[in-house]
Design goal:
The complex is a heterodimer of chains A (314) and B (551).
Chain A: H1 2-27, H2 35-43, H3 49-56, H4 62-74, H5 88-123, H6 128-142, H7 145-160, H8 175-209, H9 212-219, H10 224-261, H11 267-276, H12 280-308
Helix pairs in contact in A: 1-12, 5-6, 5-8, 5-10, 6-8, 7-10, 8-10, 10-11, 10-12, 11-12
Chain B: H1 7-10, H2 14-21, H3 23-36, E1 50-54, H4 69-78, E2 83-85, E3 98-100, E4 103-110, E5 113-118, H5 137-149, E6 162-169, E7 172-177, H6 184-189, H7 199-205, E8 220-226, E9 230-235, E10 249-253, H8 258-266, E11 280-281, H9 286-292, E12 297-302, E13 307-311, H10 321-329, H11 333-341, E14 345-346, H12 367-372, H13 376-385, E15 393-398, H14 404-419, E16 423-428, H15 431-436, E17 446-450, H16 457-462, H17 478-487, H18 493-510, E18 513-515, E19 518-525, E20 529-530, H19 540-544, E21 548-549
Parallel strand pairs in B: 1-10, 15-16, 15-17
Antiparallel strand pairs in B: 2-3, 4-5, 5-7, 6-7, 8-9, 9-10, 11-19, 12-19, 13-17, 13-18, 14-19, 20-21
The chains are: A mainly alpha (314), B alpha+beta (551).
């Protein structure tokens, strides 16, 4: 039964990926102006316009272009970066880990802050700590990341003559510095998600805490810790896991800003630079990787549902 | 040594600067001399140390296959040219005296021939496949043949007059021109594109795009290149000027967030101002930076980036000189300067005032000066005289270039034109579309935007020639074209300069373009960096070559 559920979810992911790939493929072709002319004049990506069009595959019918591109992508060939002259897949191999590290740190902070504060807020409903937590969550949701990032970089520089290092350090060069450089951007990136998770955890937990079986648990004289953490939290977390799936997509898109501000050579910054440099194979490749990741993460979320609540079989 | 660009190009008094830029320049002009350039210290230069600056990731490293300044900045550390612009604390920003680089000396036997004697014992970097062999005249010939014949070289126009390059002997090379070209040496010294490359590198790597192909004879060798992270250079121990360079390692850190750049500079993570076009800071950050790093050295000099508005002079109503003059007189340039550059800037003659030894002093523009003066009443009168008593409607195409200053300038211009009855509808284009159309004169009526910041007069004058793609105003003025083409044939410095001045007066009088003022750059440098001065242009390596750390 469980296997059938997994298989069904897996099949449903395929049309999502196809539609996403069509959107990724079409969007760069809808940009106004003759981009090929510009790419040639600014960056001399090929010998002449015809060579440029051939390089991009624009000299063939659009459906041929799509099938060729998707066919190559399926075997891991995302084309060659016009700017760096290296295979996009190879570029991504060095950059995706940076973004994933940043995303993982962000999600770590989002869960670390969001779930416990949500629990405290729910179990201390309408107390000062609840108000502070809810106020903080609203603030976390409303403050734009780029503004917060800018403040965190500039203000310490002004008042304490300190700012995060602009030198990216590889894991192999200095493991501690490597990890340390992700803490601040990861924390900032995770704040928005933490706020969402906190609010949802609170709402869901409040609902669960009012269930009959929880009342029974209380009446049996169980401690608050056992009632909340053992009997209530697991059920309250199912919608939180759903939101977490969405948050991962948001975190990935947020890396564009934070990687630029903190000088991290990840996928987000690579995308930002590729847009600036009109490096279309890279733009397409990154978007394809991102949508595939998002679809994959949501697929995993579906699987986690089944684990958290064995009754789920839709 | 030929010093035809000698004294008159480098001599610049404060009075000159006042003349160039008018009143608005006064505050800025004081900068270099009040704040700035120190003579080389009496102390003995100390070798070693590292210089960290805001670097740029190039599209690739082949100087003959891109016009990108990002490539040229990197190659300025690793490659040599035949000639270069003199650098050092005694050089005033905006001046470009030509001195030998690989060329030990040169002569001009006749109007169309140049003979260069190369330095002996110049060795390529010790990297395969060239492996430190000696540079010869064959390398120079190979470079120029490749430059002039390779398909897709956007800078090929620089050598448009070159007919042949010949090897006379191992260390002598001869250039024969199709016609006299007084700007030939300017182009040879230009830090954009004309560095000497090795045949083996091209043949081994197919082209010079890859970092492995960065093999030159310059003061530093490419050590590492991580796209969008950093590019590092290490001292070339076999550099042909013994003892140079002093600085052991150069690190160009590529980071693109302005706030992060400011923070990094304030906290000393980089040694020079991080803003484009080189070691600058933004004026709005100056106060803060001075508070945070009070001992920094600052040098102010006018920018050579000039924004102008072009008009289709081949179409009504812009074919009428009265309309063009009226549109020019409608603009309050001082107000634009105040709004876009905190009032610190220069008024531009047709060659930007930043090129102080080439631009005609602004107050000597003659009749043309009248059309730059803000006079809406006279503008209205001229429009009425031209048959537009109620003004007219037109369009203006532009791209923002991501610059708030440019957006502000466009909006102010539209407002000023509206004040005299001319209703200008702004068509904002994505940069791609703008570059492919309006930048090449393919706009419907008007266009507005910054011009390429060249270091030579030819680039600025050539845009008035009928067949030039950058002739955005579609100027067809045979007398002017003759004068411009003639400047190439005038070898005498003074006579050519006089001709360039005459051309600028004529252009200003005809009001072919509406020129806007330029801001004044502020270069900021670590005070311990000795024997270094900033300048316009992308020759970072050339200027850094004799610098050293006094700490």
């Amino acid at each position: 039964m469980l296997r059938k559920y997994f298989f069904k979810r897996l099949l449903l992911a395929i049309p999502s990926l196809v539609i996403a790939s069509l959107i990724v493929f079409s969007l760069v072709r809808l940009i106004p102006g003759d981009v090929v002319v510009l790419m040639m004049e600014e960056n001399q990506y090929a010998d002449d316009l015809e060579a440029m069009r051939a390089k991009l595959g624009l000299d063939r019918p659009i459906y041929v272009q799509y099938f060729e591109w998707i066919g190559r992508a399926l075997v891991g060939d995302l084309g060659e970066s016009l700017y760096t002259r290296r295979p996009v897949a190879q570029e991504l191999l060095t950059r995706v880990p940076v973004s994933l590290e940043l995303g993982a740190v962000a999600i770590f902070f989002a869960i670390l802050l969001g779930v416990p504060i949500g629990i405290v807020s729910a179990t201390r409903q309408d107390t000062a700590s609840d108000y502070v937590a809810r106020g903080g969550a609203i603030l976390g949701l409303s403050v734009p990341g780029f503004w917060l990032g800018t403040l965190v970089v500039v203000l310490p520089a002004i008042y304490f003559k300190w700012s995060p290092s602009i030198q990216f350090t590889k894991l192999t060069d200095d493991p501690w510095r490597h990890v340390a450089q992700f803490i601040l951007p990861g924390l900032l990136l995770g704040i928005g998600s933490a706020a969402s998770i906190m609010r949802l955890t609170r709402t869901q937990l409040l609902e669960v805490l009012r269930q009959d079986y929880v009342r029974t648990a209380w009446s049996k004289g169980m401690s608050e810790r056992v009632v909340v953490l053992k009997h209530s939290l697991k059920n309250a977390l199912i919608p939180v896991v759903t939101v977490l799936g969405i948050q991962i997509a948001q975190v990935l898109s947020g890396t564009v800003i934070f990687e630029s501000i903190f000088g991290l050579p990840g996928m987000g910054r690579f995308l930002f630079d590729a847009i600036t440099e009109r490096d279309y194979p890279v733009i397409q490749g990154i978007n394809l990787v991102v949508v595939t990741t998002v679809v994959g993460v949501n697929l995993m979320v579906d699987f986690v549902y089944a684990y958290l609540d064995p009754r789920i079989r839709f | 040594m030929d010093k035809r660009h000698g004294s008159h190009r480098t001599h610049l008094s404060r009075r000159d600067l006042f003349k160039v830029g008018g009143t608005a320049l006064a505050a800025a002009a004081a900068g270099p001399y009040v704040l700035g350039v120190r003579p080389a210290g009496a102390a003995t230069p100390k070798p070693g140390g590292e210089f960290r600056f805001r670097g740029y990731t190039p599209p690739h490293f082949d100087p003959h296959l891109t016009a990108s300044y990002t490539t040229m900045i990197n190659l300025s550390f690793t490659h040599s040219r035949l000639l270069k612009h003199k650098a050092g604390p005694e050089v005033k920003p905006g001046t470009f005296e030509i001195v030998g680089d690989l060329a030990e000396s040169w002569t001009q036997p006749d109007e169309k021939t140049y003979v260069f004697k190369l330095r002996k014992g110049v060795r390529w970097h010790k990297k395969p496949p060239v492996d430190g062999r000696e540079l010869t005249a064959e390398d120079v010939k190979y470079t120029f043949d490749r430059f002039t014949t390779i398909k897709g070289n956007a800078n090929q126009h620089m050598m448009a007059t070159l007919a042949a390059t010949e090897v006379v002997d191992k260390h002598t090379v001869k250039f024969t021109l199709k016609e006299p070209d007084a700007f030939f040496l300017d182009f040879l010294a230009n830090p954009m594109a004309l560095c000497i490359v090795a045949r083996e590198a091209v043949e081994t790597f197919t082209d010079l795009k890859k970092p492995e192909a960065v093999i030159g004879t310059g003061p530093w060798m490419l050590e590492g290149h991580e796209p969008k992270v950093r590019t590092t250079f290490v001292r070339n121990p076999d550099y042909f000027i013994k003892g140079l360079p002093y600085i052991q390692r150069i690190e160009g850190i590529d980071f693109n967030d302005p706030a992060a750049r400011l923070a990094a500079f304030v906290t000393g993570q980089i040694d020079a101002g991080p803003e484009f076009p080189g070691m600058m800071i933004r004026r709005q950050d100056w106060k803060l930076i001075k508070e945070q790093r009070p001992k920094l050295r600052y040098v102010e000099f006018p920018s050579n980036v000039m924004t102008h508005a072009g008009m289709r002079t081949d179409k009504a109503p812009f074919g009428d000189i009265r309309v063009r003059r009226a549109l020019s007189m409608a603009i309050d340039r001082k107000a634009v300067l105040q709004a876009t550059a905190e009032g610190v800037g220069v008024m531009n003659p047709p060659i930007p005032a930043g090129l102080v030894s080439l631009a005609i002093p602004y107050d000597q523009l003659g009749e043309g000066l009248k059309w730059d003066a803000y006079n809406p009443a006279e503008a209205k009168r001229l429009l009425a005289e031209a048959g537009h008593p109620n003004g007219f409607s037109t369009t203006l195409e532009y791209a923002t270039y991501g610059s708030q200053e440019l957006i502000d300038a466009v909006q102010m211009a539209v407002k000023f034109w509206k004040d005299v009855g001319v209703d200008v509808k702004v068509v904002e284009k994505p940069y791609a579309a703008y570059f492919a159309t309006a930048y090449q004169g393919k706009q419907d009526a008007m266009m507005m935007g910054p011009q390429f910041p060249a270091l030579d007069p030819w680039n600025f004058m050539a845009q008035y020639l009928p067949d030039e793609p950058k002739n955005q105003s579609h100027v067809k003025d045979p007398a002017l074209a003759d004068m411009i083409l003639n400047t190439r044939r005038i070898i005498d410095d003074k006579k050519r300069q006089a001709q360039i001045y005459t051309i600028q007066k004529h252009i200003a009088d005809q009001a072919y373009y509406i020129r806007f003022p330029s801001g004044v750059y502020i270069a900021a440098l670590d005070p311990a960096l000795e024997n270094f001065a900033p300048n316009l242009g992308y020759d970072y390596g050339g200027r850094m070559m004799a610098a050293w750390w006094n700490k």
